Amino acid sequence: MTGIYDDPWAYELACSFRDVEPEVEALLGWCAEHGTGPVGSVLELAAGPAEHARAFARRGVAATALDLNPAMCAYAAKRAADDGVALDVVRADMTSFALGRRFDLVVTMLDSTSHLMTLDAFVAHLDRAAAHLAPGGLYVVEMAHPRDRLGDPSVGNDWTVERDGVRARVRWGGPDDVLDPVTQIAPDRVAMTIESGAEPRALHDVVPYRFWTATEVSAAVRLSGALEVVARYGDFRDVDLSDPDAWRMIVVLRAAQPAGAQPGIG
C-alpha cells in the first residue's frame, strides 16, 4: 500500500482537474487590487508538485516551492527542469521555515492548511508567512469551503481524470470518514485506481484532515497579529464566500497595518 503523498506523479494526476493557469491569473489580479503592483517573486508553501509555482516560473516570476516531503521536492524540481523553467525547491516545515528573503506573493493552495493540526501550528504558520512577505506583499490561502464539512458539500468526493492517455478514478474522503467533534480532525480515506493500458494500479491511503472554520481562521490571524485579512473569496473568481456557487474559502492577507492606519476586514 502506497501513500498518496509518497507518489507525487499520482497525486498530481489526481489533482489535474484543476485549471492552474486561470488560478494564477486570479492570484495576480488580487495582487494588483490589494497589493502594491507587479509580482516579481512568489513562494508556494506545502507546494507538493508545485504546479502553481511552476506556472508562475513560466511567466518569468522568480518562484520558490517549499514542501516537507522529500519525494514531492524531488518531483517538483524534476518537473521544473523538464519544463525548462527555474524553480528553487526547499524542503522545510510550513510552521518553522526561515529562508532569509522576502516575496511579493506567498500562496498555500489545495487546502494544504488542513495539515496544520492545532491552532498553535496555524498561528506559527501565519507568523512564518508574514516574515517572508515583501513590503506590500500578499499571502493567499486556499482552503476547502466550510460547507464541505458542515452542510451540503460544494465538491464531490469521487471524480475521474484523464491526462496523456492515463485515466484515474479518485475517491478522497467521504461520509464514512467521521470528523472528530473535539479535535476537528477526520481520517480521510483515499483510494485511486490508475489505468494506462496495462494492469490497473491501485493506491490507498488514510490522510488526517484538520477542518478549519472561517471564524477559526480569523481567530488565528488575530492571535498571530502579523497579518490582516483584506479580502475573502469563494472561488478564483470574485465570488463571495456566502454565495451558493462558492466552492472554496480563499483568504487574502497582508502585513498588519500600524495602529491608526486603515484596518482590514478580518
What is the topology?
Blueprint: H1 8-14, H2 20-34, E1 41-45, H3 51-58, E2 62-67, H4 70-83, E3 87-91, E4 103-108, H5 119-131, E5 133-144, H6 147-150, E6 158-163, E7 166-172, E8 185-195, E9 201-210, H7 214-224, E10 227-233, E11 248-255
Parallel strand pairs: 1-2, 1-4, 2-3, 4-5
Antiparallel strand pairs: 5-11, 6-7, 7-8, 8-9, 10-11
Condensed summary:
With 266 residues, the protein is an alpha/beta fold. It has helices at residues 8-14, 20-34, 51-58, 70-83, 119-131, 147-150, 214-224; strands spanning 41-45, 62-67, 87-91, 103-108, 133-144, 158-163, 166-172, 185-195, 201-210, 227-233, 248-255.
Name its key features.
alpha/beta, N-terminal domain of TfIIb, 266 residues, 27% helix, globular, Rossmann fold, 7-stranded mixed β-sheet, single chain, 2 domains
Describe this entry's structure for a reader:
With 266 residues, the protein is α/β, with parallel strands linked by helices. It is built from 7 helices and 11 strands. Strands 3-2-1-4-5-11-10 form a 7-stranded mixed sheet, sandwiched between helices. A 4-stranded antiparallel sheet has the order 6-7-8-9, with helices on one face. α5 links the parallel β4 and β5. It is globular. It starts with 7 loop residues before the first helix and ends in an 11-residue tail after the last strand.
